[in-house]
Design goal:
The longest helix is centred in the N-terminal third of the chain and has 51 residues. The chain starts with 5 loop residues before the first helix and ends with a helix. β1 and β2 form a beta hairpin. 36% of the residues are buried. 67% of the residues lie in helices and 10% in strands. It has 541 residues and is α/β, with parallel strands linked by helices. It has 19 helices and twelve strands. The strands form three sheets. The chain has a five-stranded antiparallel β-sheet with strand order 5-4-1-2-12. The chain folds into two domains: 310 residues, ABC transporter type 1, transmembrane domain (ABC transporter transmembrane region fold), CATH 1.20.1560; 206 residues, P-loop containing nucleotide triphosphate hydrolases (Rossmann fold), CATH 3.40.50.
Length: 541
């Protein structure tokens, strides 16, 4: 585990400026520490040895107060920018991880990385904040204050400097030993949290099926055991933190005590003046303080460093090269899948999608219909066969130019927060026409604000059927030539099913191409061409 991973500066721009600012503030802090110690030593030394009055010591005390105030301001400034940099860095890494995971594609996510990426991009990277706010500033201070103060002590009293030089290496030695043990604990904690997050996501996704079979309480024991594993890993890290903190405190306290005893004996013998003795005695703890804080804050930052390391692993996973050719216009081009097969999904498929037609994919659950859609859209690369548009392999096509011509409506529509008018788009006249076809106009009658009704995330505020009508209306108003419907009637009643049928016919009448996954006979009957997705075993048989 590196104290400052160069990959962090490479992937997060906010971290670069913050590290530079922290280094500058660290040098300033070192100068203020030395100035504070020397001013305090002169104030106390002159007051004791020379009997200086307050009037004589006034300017020195004023300078001392000014240094203390400036040091407090520097600390406040450091903490303020630390929180800001942490928020921006976490945001940048989160955005990059999600974008890179999407670029890696569904197959990579299906290997088990999907749930772990979800956990990493949400709670996992939040642990980076202690690293920025607490650990990194102390690390910079250890690199600036400790050697700077040690050089000042060497100039004041070489005996005390020798004691500090002998004892000082023991602190990082103990920190390295503890750090190696903590690294394993932090990685275990992150892994247990990712397993817990993946289990909960799977449970939530399958909860309707579990409830239908009366098994919704079955996975509870598994979730509890994963929660206990995460709790034990976290408590193990905390135990190490407390023990290592105690060791560091004991070591540095004894070291300062040795310096203090040496100064006291030489003051009694007259080999050292009081001002120098006080200055060295004040500076001695400052030599160890940054290192002690690094050791203490290391444990708070360990989880964040482990999460960042996992994020860098995701970001450094090579993305398959994307095509550079612009996709042909799907209003006139034909998309073909010839003998397409995907490893891990026993599917063998031939599909011809001509402009202005409705093609239905059928077959039993799990045979690979959704996989066929992903191949047709360039989300997956086939291991066998060929996917092409007018003779151009999809591998050679720029995905963005293809996806810009596609509207995809999944089983559960994805609706962003906003008003119904904003979600649907189009002008007032086109919205009214489309709403009449999809039945959304009947929904709007019961809404006091009509088109201006605000919806929450995922269409919160409407039922599932009403959300489907909003999504269908948006699909009708979208300008894309290809519309993909993934089992659009899966959760709808007879009335909702009829709305979908009317929408499919309207899309075809408008000259748009429709590719849909269908189970219900009525939807299959509305298609111009029906393709049964067969498993590889069926083909061989």
């Amino acid at each position: 585990m590196r104290p400052l991973d160069p990959r962090l500066l490479r992937h997060a721009r906010a971290a670069r400026g913050y590290v530079a600012l922290t280094a500058a503030l660290g040098v300033l802090t070192a100068a203020l520490v030395v100035a504070q110690a020397l001013l305090l030593a002169h104030t106390l030394g002159n007051a004791v040895t020379d009997g200086a009055t307050l009037a004589v010591l006034g300017p020195t005390i004023a300078w001392l107060a000014a240094v203390v105030v400036v040091r407090a301001l520097v600390t406040a400034l450091q903490e303020r920018f630390a929180h800001r940099a942490a928020t921006r860095t976490v945001g940048e890494l989160r955005e990059q991880v999600v974008a890179h995971a999407v670029a890696l594609g569904p197959r990579w996510l299906a290997t088990g990385e999907g749930p772990s990426v979800v956990t990493l991009a949400t709670r996992g990277l939040d642990a980076l904040e202690p690293y920025f706010v607490r650990y990194l500033p102390q690390l910079v201070l250890a690199a600036t204050v400790t050697p700077g103060v040690l050089l000042v002590v060497l100039g004041l009293d070489w005996v005390s400097a020798a004691i500090l030089v002998v004892v000082l290496p023991l602190v990082p030695l103990f920190m390295v030993l503890v750090g190696r043990l903590t690294q394993g604990r932090s990685e275990q904690g992150l892994a247990s949290m990712q397993r817990l997050g993946a289990q909960v996501l799977d449970l939530l996704a399958g909860l309707p099926t579990l409830r239908a079979h009366g098994r919704e309480h079955g996975p509870g024991a598994r979730v509890r055991s994963l929660g206990d594993a995460h709790r034990q890993a976290t408590m193990g890290t905390l135990r190490i933190a407390f023990l290592s903190g105690m060791v560091l405190e004991l070591l540095t306290t004894l070291s300062v005590a040795l310096v203090a005893v040496g100064i006291g004996l030489r003051l009694v013998e007259g080999d050292l003046d009081l001002v120098t003795g006080i200055a060295v005695l004040v500076l001695a703890p400052e030599v160890f303080l940054p290192l002690r804080q690094v050791g203490i804050q290391f444990h708070a930052a360990a989880d964040g460093v482990a999460a960042a390391g996992r994020a860098f692993e995701v970001l450094e996973t090579p993305v398959p090269p994307a095509g550079t050719r612009t996709a042909p216009d799907l209003r006139t081009a034909t998309l073909r899948l010839d003998g397409v097969g995907v490893a891990g999904t026993p599917v063998d498929l031939d599909l011809v999608l001509r402009p202005g037609t409705v093609v239905a994919l059928t077959g039993p659950s799990g045979v690979g219909k959704t996989t066929a859609l992903e191949v047709a859209l360039g989300l997956l690369r086939p291991d066998t066969g060929r996917a092409s548009i007018d003779g151009i392999d999809l591998e050679d096509v720029d995905p963005a130019s293809l996806w810009a011509q596609v509207t995809w409506l999944p089983q559960r529509p994805v609706l962003e927060p906003g008003t119904i008018a904003q979600l649907v788009g189009g002008d007032e006249a086109s919205r009214a026409t489309a709403a009449g076809l999809t039945g959304l106009d009947a929904v709007l009658v019961d809404l006091p604000l009509g088109w201006e009704t605000p919806l929450g995330r995922g269409g919160e505020g409407l039922s599932l059927g009403q959300r489907q009508r909003v999504a269908l209306t948006r699909t009708l108003l979208s300008p894309t030539p290809l519309v993909v419907l993934d089992e659009p009637t899966a959760h709808l009643d007879a009335a909702g099913e009829q709305v979908v049928l009317d929408t499919v016919r309207a899309l075809r009448d408008a000259g748009r191409t429709v590719l849909l996954v269908a189970h219900r006979h009525s939807l299959v009957a509305a298609a111009d061409d029906v393709v049964r997705v067969r498993s590889a075993a069926e083909v061989l048989a």
